[in-house]
Amino acid sequence: MNSSKVFECQKCGVCCKGYGGIFPTDQEIEAIAGFLDATRDEFLSRYCEESGGRTMLRTAENGSCIFWDELCQIHPVKPRLCKTWPYLKAVLVDRNNLAVIQNACPGVSKDVTYEEFAAAVREFHSNDHAD
Ligand code: SF4
Ligand code: SF4
């Protein structure tokens, strides 16, 4: 199974729904603020909130990430976790995580075997797409 059969994003936005969970690093904060032509402080006050002492992307009133609007509005500079999804290394640690990922992401084939998905995860990270 080639990688496009393993995963093809449906642009459904399901992975961008729900409260929080995206904690940008300092470097990512600088990159996103620059992309938005905002100062770091403007970016933090408009688009972020504190959660557990960490900076988290804000959730909009519609329950999705503040940057979701049909598509990710900061796609070129989105945080590493967003770039990595759904190729999470957690699946290499526990094969049961494949079912969790399949349930969370309609773009992951329901027919993919664990071995095929694990190979796609390894390939993704060997190419460092998220960097
Ligand atoms: S949940 Fe999966 S298919 Fe839907 S937008 Fe996110 S990555 Fe794409
Ligand atoms: S930054 Fe973009 S990809 Fe990440 S959760 Fe927000 S809208 Fe989705």
Task: Please summarize what this structure is.
40% of the residues lie in helices and 9% in strands.
Question: What does this protein look like?
Answer:
This protein is mostly helical and about 130 residues long. The chain has one domain (about 5-125). About 40% of the residues lie in helices and about 10% in strands. Strands 1-2 form a two-stranded antiparallel ribbon. A two-stranded antiparallel ribbon has the order 3-4. The longest helix is centred in the C-terminal third of the chain and has 13 residues, at about 115-125. It is elongated, with a radius of gyration of 16 Å. The model has no long low-confidence stretch (mean pLDDT about 95). Bound molecules: iron/sulfur cluster (2 copies). One iron/sulfur cluster binds near residues 16, 57, 65, 72 and 82.
What topology emerges from the helices and strands here?
Elements: H1 3-6, H2 26-35, H3 40-47, E1 48-51, E2 54-57, E3 68-69, E4 71-72, H4 80-84, H5 90-93, H6 97-104, H7 114-126
Antiparallel strand pairs: 1-2, 3-4
Helix pairs in contact: 2-3
Bound molecules: iron/sulfur cluster (SF4) (2 copies).
One iron/sulfur cluster binds near residues 11 and 15.
